[in-house]
Amino acid sequence: MKNTLFVLILLSTINGYSQDFKVKSGVNIPDFENKHIYEERAVDVLGSNTIGFYIGVNYEYSLNENFSLDADLLYSSLSNTGNSNFPGKSKFQSIQVPLTFNYCVFDKLKLGLGTSLNYHIKSEHVYKSEIDHTLPHNDFLNQKFEFYDNTSYSLHIGTSYNIWNDFFIDVRYNFGLGNIYDSETESVAKSKYNNLQLGLSYKF
Prior knowledge:
Blueprint: H1 2-13, E1 18-38, E2 41-44, E3 48-62, E4 67-81, E5 89-106, E6 109-126, E7 144-145, E8 151-164, E9 167-177, E10 189-203
Antiparallel strand pairs: 1-2, 1-3, 1-10, 3-4, 4-5, 5-6, 6-7, 6-8, 8-9, 9-10
């Protein structure tokens, strides 16, 4: 987070081509990959994904007519429901800080490539029924467990299209990197998620 703020301050002090601020919001469409390691075999525990949302701000610094850098500060929410092997629901509320390098294809269309730091302010799994033979204890009814790491990282590609005046359509696909479970849990469970973000933004 400190590095991101430093980059924003540095960019704002450079006499560049232009600088823009946006507010943005939209939906998250996650794609979780969950596996539980039991008796040295990986059991697929993927159930169904739940559409979430994001909201935040964007700062874009144009290097020239074709290239720009931007940074977002987003609040993001998404969740996943397990199957019979791992019943319950995983919920994530995160602060995301994506950094993106953009190329302007033509006046209204930009393509972007970047990376993101995701800080999970809330990450928990709530069991909805008893579990048999998949974990050491059977009585997990309606209990909440916080066994996810506080941070995760992702790469993303995306596009932004100016649809009318200062309004834009934003599309971004995030590729999750690494296991999101904490160090005490990662030996028995593996999980990561990709995330499609669709939204609108308004430039000031």
